[in-house]
Write a structure and sequence with these properties.
The protein is mainly β and 121 residues long. The chain is built from no helices and eleven strands.
């Protein structure tokens, strides 16, 4: 019922910046999106939470990106952004958008297809 479309990935030199965006398309239904987040998965590593923002604006970051990345959200457009600065080679990963739908009796989550971020040294 919800489609997540990501954009903004690419190749950047160490110390550079990228901005990721993800829009939740809800179709004709009045779906309420609760949490939105960015995860990433590097080669040989497990998928990890990068940053999360809930519908009330509460935010949490992974320790490895705190002070370098900023997550923000436009509730009208159902869009979440990840501004990434001072990028390091270890930030190289596939970045996935995540959204959780509000429902009174169920937990419904959605994932984007992933966008590649590559940071060269």
């Amino acid at each position: 019922q919800v489609q997540l479309l990501e954009s903004g990935g690419g190749l950047v030199q160490a110390g550079g910046s990228l901005r990721l965006s993800c829009t939740a398309s809800k179709g004709p239904f009045n779906i309420i999106i609760k949490d939105m987040a960015w995860y990433r998965q590097a080669p040989g590593k497990q998928r990890e939470l990068v940053a999360l923002i809930n519908s009330g604006g509460s935010i949490k970051y992974a320790d490895s990106v705190k002070a370098r990345f900023t997550i923000s959200r436009d509730n009208v457009k159902d869009t979440v952004y990840l501004q990434m600065s001072s990028l390091k080679p270890e930030d190289t990963a596939v970045y996935y958008c995540y959204a959780e739908q509000y429902h009174p009796v169920a937990t419904l989550v959605y994932w984007g297809q992933g966008t590649q971020v590559t940071v060269s040294s």
